[in-house]
Every structure is written in C-alpha cells, then in structure tokens.
Design brief:
By secondary structure, the protein is mainly beta. It has 1 helix and 18 strands. This is Choice-of-anchor M domain-containing protein.
C-alpha cells in the first residue's frame, strides 16, 4: 500500500514556515517569459519528453481552469494536456543515493532515477509555474495524488548541496509568478503515474495522471550518471513567497 510520509511532512512543514513569509530566491536559469499567445496542442496529441525543459502549470482556457504542461522543447513553447505526456527517464537519469535520503525509499549506495532540480543533458527537466497571463496574478495550490507503479516515488527540493531537503505533504501552495524545479525520484523502473490537480480561486480541477516511463533494470544494476547526487540541489528555484513540496508514495 502506498503512503505519504505524513510524519516527516508535519515535522518539516513547521521548520519551513519562515520560507512562506519571506523567501525570495532566484536563479538565472529559471528566468522565462510566458505569453498568452503560446499554443495549446489539441487533446490527444501524444508526446514523449526525453530531455529539455517543461513546467506543469494552471491555465484559464475558455473560462475554465486547466492544469497543463508547458513543453519548452517545442518551438514555440507549447502547452499540452497532462494525459498526452509521457516523461521518459533513461540511463542518463540514474543517480546514486547519498546518506540522509532515506525518505525517498532508497538507501545510501542505491541507484535511483531522477528528474533533477538542476538541468542535466539527456534528462527531462520538469518543474512548475504560475506565470500564464490568464491567471491574472492568482495564486494556486498543486495537489499530488497517489503514485501508481513499482517501488517508491518522491519529490523534494534542496537549495544547495549541503542544505536539508524540504519535504511536505501531498499539497503545496504556489504563489503567483512562481517558477520552480525540484528532484523527482523513482526507485524502480517501469511505468509510473502521478495524478495531479490544481486549485485556483474556488475551482479545483479533476486529478489527471502524468505518466513516467522509467527505463532500465532494477536499481543498482544500471549504469550511473557521473553527476554527484548533492549537485542536483544547487540552484534551480524561483520563489516569491511560498513553499515547495515533497511527496512520497510507497508500495
């Protein structure tokens, strides 16, 4: 049965409380402009993301809130429906876990597949933003549903290689104008789905599964990236006021 790391989340939410009041962290790699003329791909247009930048984010479409994915690898950047997207993680995404990351469901020395907080060549760079002009300055709350797939799934943010990973429960508040990235970790290969929904104003969307195709053999047998685990936490965050979450699902 899958469980969210609720106890850990409660402990760290308290520790992170000052972040919601005063944090303003920036990274030049995350400066971007989102315009209201960016196209939305027709529903049913399937795509596999194997590398490059993409953000999950709310958009007001014909008066309705939609949680879409902004594919920055397309020209121009194109918004896609979540159910049409598969995020592919191959050998380039494999990392070795360091000590202190047991909350991921992996132990020091284990190999895991990571969508990193900092962009890595050959790996999708998945984040989220609340920058679409249709939001008209509204905040949002992003909701993570129960992970389906083998092994464990977690999302965490680490602002610098020696800081404590920031862990939250299954929802996170995302202020207007936010663009952020985190580490998305899978401990086993296979097909994984993570239902996502968003609240903007009084409207909450229905959960839609985002699919991940994690390629390779069981952890510990796949060729590992030479990028040290702790480097994944350097930079890659823009927060005006807010908190970035970590979600964990366990089989």
């Amino acid at each position: 049965m899958k469980k969210l790391a609720a106890t850990l989340a409660v402990t760290l939410v308290a520790a992170l409380a000052p972040v919601t009041a005063s944090a303003q962290l920036t990274d030049a790699a995350l400066v971007q402009t989102v315009t209201d003329d960016e196209p939305i791909a027709p529903r049913g247009t399937a795509v596999r993301l194997t590398e490059g930048h993409a953000d999950i984010g709310p958009v007001i479409v014909d008066g309705h809130v939609e949680l879409l994915l902004r594919d920055d690898s397309a020209t121009p950047p194109t918004w896609r429906y979540l159910e049409d997207v598969t995020v592919v993680l191959a050998d380039e995404a494999v990392q070795t876990v360091a000590k202190g990351y047991d909350f991921t469901g992996a132990h020091a020395g284990d190999s895991v597949w990571v969508v990193p907080q900092t962009e890595v060549t050959g790996v999708p760079w998945l984040g989220w933003n609340t920058q679409h002009p249709s939001l008209n300055g509204q905040d949002a709350t992003l909701h993570f549903g129960t992970h389906e797939g083998d092994g464990d799934f977690s999302v965490f943010l680490q602002n610098g290689g020696f800081s404590t990973p920031q862990v939250v429960a299954e929802t996170m508040f995302v202020p207007a104008g936010t663009h952020a990235h985190a580490n998305w970790v899978f401990t086993a290969p296979g097909t994984h789905t993570v239902p996502l929904s968003v609240t903007v104003g009084e409207t909450t969307t229905n959960p839609v599964p985002l699919r991940f195709a994690v390629e390779g053999e069981e952890a510990g047998t796949t060729q590992q990236s030479s990028l040290p685990w702790w480097l994944l936490g350097i930079g890659a965050l823009v927060l005006v006021v807010g908190i970035v979450a970590v979600v964990r699902g366990r089989r």
